[in-house]
Every structure is written in structure tokens, then in C-alpha cells.
Write the C-alpha cells for this entry.
Amino acid sequence: MLSKYKIMIVDDEKEIADLLEVYLKNDGCTVYKFYNGTEALKCIEEKEIDLAVLDIMLPDIDGFRICQKIREKYYFPVIMLTAKSEDIDKIQGLTLGADDYISKPFNPLEVIARVRTQLRRYNQYNTTQAVPREPVSYDNKGLYICPDSHKCTLNGIELSLTPFEFNILWYLCKNHGRVVSAEELFEKIWGEKFLENNNNTVMAHIARLREKMDELPRKPKYIKTVWGVGYTIE
């Protein structure tokens, strides 16, 4: 039985997704089922998923992209489904971090067996909680930033940022969803002990960043201020 596990199914073929849901629930799983990739990505951020079953061909975001986004932060097993039989698809999925690959049509019992196998392997080699990998880039709401290439674009237009501005923006992006205090920002970016007057330094750099990003002062889309706490990118 898989009663303690949370499984996510993503497949735009409703009959297949519904069938897998029935089999997994009968095995005791909690199932999160989606017919598109956008809602699935939201679920990954909100729930503690133990394993994902992803179809490659989806109406919005393909399974390869979802797998890539998962591997930026999480280690849980990913099983990919596809109606295609080309080896190149299998190679691409495995290269992006998929753990297993099943071609359609398939026997649902085979999928359940593969789920059990992957969870058993994962638990065997992860007796302690894994530390999420450092993300390699951030791409959301038109904002893209990559420290390896030192490139930052907003809606396809490259931003000209100073090293401090770039590092501040990258630190906020890689911690998106978490409020970062001015003290933490200063000590991480400048590498010095935070003093009270250093808050003005942080505020000035945030203001210049917002100006370069054409942010509205009272209703910023990207860098938001949580008064009395710090800054966040949601």
C-alpha cells in the first residue's frame, strides 16, 4: 500500500488521468490530478509531492519543461508518460532528470508497480531529507535572470544592472515566495555585518532596481515590500 504518499498526475487525456487516479487511490495514495501544466506547477509549490507522473504532450507547458522546473528545487521521483516511441524523447526526459519512462498505451498496474519501485528507491537512498539544489536560473512573469551567463531580461528586453543590483535581484528570485530582510540582503550581498544605517543602502539599490524594471512605486509587480519585514518576489 502507498497510503502515506502524495502523487501528482498530469495528463490532458482525461480518461488516462482519471484511470490512474482510481488505481492510485485504491492503493491508498493522496492524488493531485491536473489536465494542464500551469496548475501542476502551482501544486508543486503548495504541496509536499512524493512523486509525479507527467505526460509529455500537454496543452500549455510540456512535460519536459515541468520536469526541468521540478529539478531546480526538488528530488522526488518523476515518471514520464508519452504516446511517442522515439528514443530521443526518452533520452531528453532522462537527461532533464526523469527517473522512469512509460510509453502509451500501458497497463495501469504497470504504472502502479513503477510508482512503488521509484518510491522504494527514493526512500532507500534518501534516509535524511535532501537539501534542495541551488536553482540555476529564474524565469517567471516575463522576468528571466541567470547568474551563470550574468544575463537578466524583462519581457525579452535585457536590463543593464550593476553587479550589486544583479546580485540583489538574483538573491530575491532564488528565494522567491520568502520575505528577505534588509539585514539578510546586506550581509549576503555586501558580505559585511549589518548596521542600522545600511538599511538606506539596501533601500537605494532596491529603488534603482525598480526604476530600471519600470515598477510602479505603489503597486510593484515584481519586488514587493513587506513593511517592517523586508522584500519578496512572489
Q: What stands out?
A: Confidence is low (pLDDT under 50) at residues 127-131.
